[in-house]
TrEMBL record:
SUPFAM superfamilies noted in UniProt: Ribonuclease H-like
Coiled coil: none
Compositional bias segments (type: Polar residues): 8-19
Organism: Arachis hypogaea
Superkingdom of the source species: Eukaryota
The protein's name: RNase H type-1 domain-containing protein
Lineage: Eukaryota, Viridiplantae, Streptophyta, Embryophyta, Tracheophyta
Spans annotated as Disordered: 1-21
Annotated InterPro entries: RNase_H-like_dom_plant, RNase_H-like_EbsB-rel, RNaseH-like_sf, RNaseH_domain, RNaseH_sf
Residue stretches making up the RNase H type-1 domain: 34-153
Pfam families: RVT_3
A GO molecular-function descriptor: nucleic acid binding
Length: 165
């Protein structure tokens, strides 16, 4: 029995050691990472958007502090997703893959369904996405979104100016 437990522990360690590597988007496409940070005690949040080209070069990004109306971090993350779509529209970025580490949010956008607490934001996301000729959404594990997570946390802590593009 002890051997089986030891094997399971080793397997779990192996899984947690797997590195998440950044994969570039296809040529002529961009990748946008979105993330959010949230402080329950004050219902404050911060959004972060970082846009990369297919060689891994940072093109632009922004962060913004927000007041959330829901205790769900999905509201702040959905707001970040809306922000990247607004940026893409304003800068005429036609081919963009948007990554989020909130799986239910990505599933809702891809299936064009709603999460009640963030329905108005999701409606905006779907309208903005339709206005772009090529736009996709994908889920990434939290470990694959560390830079954008750091930007959101710095913004929430007041350590980063808003709209630092």
């Amino acid at each position: 029995m002890q051997r089986k437990e030891q094997l399971e522990q080793n397997q779990n360690k192996s899984i947690s050691r797997r590195s998440i590597t950044w994969r570039p988007p296809p040529e002529n496409w961009l990748k946008a990472d979105v993330d959010a940070a949230y402080r329950r005690a004050t219902v404050e949040g911060a959004t972060a958007v970082v846009i990369w080209d297919n060689s891994g070069r940072l093109l632009t990004g922004e962060s913004m502090r927000i007041i959330t109306h829901s205790s769900l971090v999905a509201e702040a993350e959905a707001e970040a997703m809306r922000r990247v779509l607004i940026l893409a529209t304003n800068f005429n970025l036609e081919k963009i893959i948007i990554k989020s580490d909130i799986l239910p949010l990505v599933q809702a956008v891809k299936s064009k369904t709603y999460i009640a607490e963030v329905e108005p934001i999701l409606r905006d996301i779907l309208l903005l996405a339709e206005s772009l000729s090529n736009c996709g959404f994908t889920w990434v594990p939290r470990q694959g979104n560390k830079i954008t997570d750091g930007v959101a946390k710095c913004s929430l802590a007041g350590q980063l100016e808003e709209n630092w593009r």
